[in-house]
## 1
Amino acid sequence: MQPDPNNGGQLAPVFLQQATWYNTLKPNGSPQPGAFPGGSTALQVSQLDQGQAGDDDQLLDINNATVLYDIRFNSDMYNAIVSGNLYTEDLFTAACQPNGSAGNCTNPLYLPPTTSSQSPAPPVPGSVEIKSAWRDFGTPAACPAQQFYCNGRLGLVGLHIVQKTQTHGEWIWMSFEHVAK
């Protein structure tokens, strides 16, 4: 937990201090996003997604309520998207040049990977995406802070961390799931 300068100095986990997808990926015709993190990093319920990656199905919690998702990008990934003019669908399509119905880029696009060196210096993180899953308890008072990390009425129930590496083109990912989701 650290004070978040982009959310009024409130104490927040470091992953919530990364750029939100809605600060990064903009509607067509939008101006280029500002410097990292592109705006407030406050968790905004209205911007959370209800569909899971891949099939866009909804995951239901034990009370039959839909689990909500947030996606964040670290500064390396955010800056690569913004400086590479990949922040709108039209700009991405122009850079990618997809080949018809297959949708594969004829001009492959690469985000920066983690880099390592032989020196004692730590590796440079490269592109990192963090997807968090949240259970909606309805009110902040209903979120059991003794059992969950609570952000207002939302309790954190899952975390996916995805990192680009030099040697693994499909990225490396890890997932964490709350035992009491």
## 2
Amino acid sequence: MDPVPQPATDRMVDFGGHPIVVGVVPGQPELVVLTALSLARAIGAPTLHLAYVDTARYVVEEHQDGTVTHAPIDPDTADDTWQQTHDALEQHITHALGAASLSWRLHYLAGRPDRALTHLARAVDAAAIVVGTRAPGPAARLRTPLEGSVAVHLSYHQHRPVLTVPLSVVDWKAIDAPWDH
């Protein structure tokens, strides 16, 4: 078995002139997309590649341009519901970006978010990947230990920098840390 390629200077993608991949989800605050837009403008990125990864679908085939052919995990699921999600995301992104003078493209991917975003970033030779944090609350506290953080998985499984956009902060006084006792 070949060793896994490790981050190194010869694997770096120069920020200048390379696109940015952005993980998006329905209902996500515009802050993630606008942060990615600001970064893209600062580095002269030609394109934002926004990507939603549907975990209720699986990858049938990965294509060299970063797109995938996908199908529902549950064969009894209506196969056109993904298009509604795609259209709603596209409308939300169009509104968020307004008259941005930067081209962008929405990719509808499937499977594990970290793998799908990594595949897309490789395909488009992205300089970095931008993702948002999970919304706080009891559901997030339960999901994170079980599923893990997409940003953490990305930082361990590919060599591009990952910019994590905080979507909510917790007051330091509200944290019950073990070292406080």
## 3
Amino acid sequence: MTTETPRKRMVRPPVGGSDVGRGRAERLRTAKSHSPSSQAWLERQLNDPYVAEARARGYRSRAAFKLIEIDDRLHLIRRGARVVDLGCAPGGWLQVLVERGAGLVVGVDLLETAPLAPARVLQGDFTEPGLQARLLAQVGGAVDVVLSDLAPNTTGHRRTDHLRIVGLIEAAADFAEHGLAPGGAFVAKAFQGGETAAVIASLRRRFGQVRLVKPKASRAGSAEIYVACTGFRGSSTCSPATPTP
């Protein structure tokens, strides 16, 4: 068994949809050319109401509805806000940020993201320190909101995949600590598991409130949750936060 730490990457696997709120399920007509896992994912996409709604409203991905629900609950995106979107491809969250009046939006992803003016998009590995410096330079000042929809390439080994996502959350949280203005907000994708609790405990020392949010657009059977942190205390403080379920 190797002890080498896997390199953190930002590429995200496809995410299927929810089985709630639709009629008769549609099946693939030509399934012979697909593996069972690919066939299952494609069938979920065909029958996912969020996929259909995203297509109807012109969103690049169903993930747009996750950010919409989070912001409707917490009111994070103020008009004129400076926002950094980590793991922005294909651009669904960027679209929501622009629609909701964010003043300066900068996104980054390892994958190519089609231009979406007036948002600015960088392509590269967020975990590289040089790229993080470029992100802050693009913003040109303190950030009001840092969003992270980062997820690693999956290996199929649950323990390894969990450690990788935890590593990405920690990297995103460190970036937020250095870039956020006092009072700022940080939202990160997470997956329920042992090490996630330690990350949440660390965030509660840096933010006034930390909430766990499960958007309706997240599949019911998925362990995916979002950690939503508000009231950034500043990088030099670590007093206990108000626990919020």
## 4
Amino acid sequence: MKRILKMKALRWLLAIFILLITIIGLCNYWVISSTKKQLYNNINGIPFNKAGIVLGTNKMWRGEENPFFKYRIEAAVALFKAGKINHIIVSGDNHVSYYDEPMDMKNALVKLGVPDSCITLDYAGFRTFDSVIRCKEIFGQDSITIISQAFHNERALFIANYYKMHAIGFDAKDVAEAFSIQTQLREYFAKCKAVLDLYVFHASPHFLGKKVKI
């Protein structure tokens, strides 16, 4: 009897596991397939938008410069110098005093020649969901160029599409697979969570607040 119950329990666990994998797979397919036409990796071919938004990440990783950070900054600078954007919003996490993604991004942009006056800091971009929605609701940018790696842009664009934004993504240089495999795996779950946040939980950003004119 115990053996029969054990086998039934294992079958139920297997069925649940397969269901979860299927849901994650379908969510990822939906996000990727619905945004692929909005992605650009060639500066000459990307349309102009008044503003671009750089999605935040840690400047350092295990004592070294984070290549995700480096390549996003370089992509934003390239767009700005090519005249494809005139203003840059840097959106990231600043929930503790010693961790300041927006300021790190701003300093890096200024160092590479972007004027201080052309940069706006968003300190409440705690996650991609918040950054995208605040871009529209707080900074008034309905048409926007999102700047990050391709896998990240897909999710950001999916969120922007839900909120009827006219968004495109510029793909920063990819990071070597050996360095990024953990991030790539986490992204499978993040895309699924984005679908659930939008269509099931109807989530909201942590903070909105007063509007900022750009």
